Amino acid sequence: MPPYAGPPVASRSGDAASPLRLLAYLAMAIILIVLDDQAGWLARVRAQADTLVQPVWALAGLPGKLSNQVRDNAASHGQLVAETRELRNQLLLANARLTRLQTAALDNAQLRELLNVAERSGLDVQLAPILDIDLDPVKQRLVLDAGSRDGVHVGQAVIDAGGLMGQVISTTGGTSTVLLLTDPDHAVPVTVARNGVRLIV
Q1: Pairs from 72-77 (Cβ < 8 Å, separation ≥ 24)
Q2: Is the pLDDT confidence value at 14 over 60?
Q3: Angle at alpha carbon of residue 177, lines to 173 and 181, rounded to 5°
Q4: Which residues pair with 191 in a beta bridge?
Q5: Cβ-proximal residues to 138 (8 Å cutoff; 6+ apart), any chain
Q6: Around Cβ 160, how many Cβ atoms within 10 Å?
Q7: pLDDT tens, position by position, 119-175
Q8: C-alpha torsion sign, points 147, 152, 155, 157
Q9: Would you tell me which CATH number, out of the four given (2.60.40.10, 1.10.150.130, 3.30.1330.80, 2.40.10.340), belongs to the domain 126-200?
Q10: pTM score
Q11: Paired residues of 177 in beta bridges
């Protein structure tokens, strides 16, 4: 058996060089740190490196920015849709209130006209709302929300702002039926105030 001659010379020299190389790196690092601290000449290198890295950072953050923008746009769109719906509902309510006010104003104007007619003619009148109206060519009548309990009786004349409108032909406790002047079968006895002549209208 041949005697052991030990490890190769190259291997021993490489192993011995490893600690020396590490010490050299540490020494260079310490020298660079001291020089940078004293002279600050590495600051320019860092600034240039930051300038080169900034586009990479911007590209890395771009997906997140796009995602946030899409989310914000979706939220803004949903908010706009909700606000539009709310404004539309408010507009519908305002139109409904305006219609009611216009109807009330028209009703008040008609009531004033009726009261003026009653005052001018000196008649004892009673106001009654219309419940129903039938304008059939052969039968033209309306139903009033006033009856015998309110003092309405058959044969009583019915007037509106334009004058004579018809005549009561039947009553119940709470309603009365009026035959309109435009009905073909209508006939109302009248007296001309100037000369006392009696006519059938």
Answers
A1: none
A2: no
A3: 155
A4: 198
A5: 184
A6: 13
A7: 666 667 777 888 998 888 788 899 999 999 989 999 888 887 777 788 899 999 999
A8: negative
A9: 2.40.10.340
A10: 0.42
A11: 143, 170
DSSP code string of the chain? -PPP--S-HHHHHHHHHHHHHHHHHHHHHHHHHHHHHHH-THHHHHHHHHHHHHHHHHHHHHHHHHHHHHHHHHHHHHHHHHHHHHHHHHHHHHHHHHHHHHHHHHHHHHHHHHHHHHHHHT-------EEEEEEETTEEEEEES--GGGT--TT-EEEETTEEEEEEEEE-SS-EEEEETTSTT---EEE-TTT--EEE-
Rounded distance, CA 171 to CA 154, Å? 7
Residue type, 76: S
Distance in angstroms (rounded) separating the CA atoms of residues 158 and 180: 9
Q: In what order do the strands lie in the sheet with 130-136?
A: 130-136, 139-144, 176-180, 163-171, 157-160
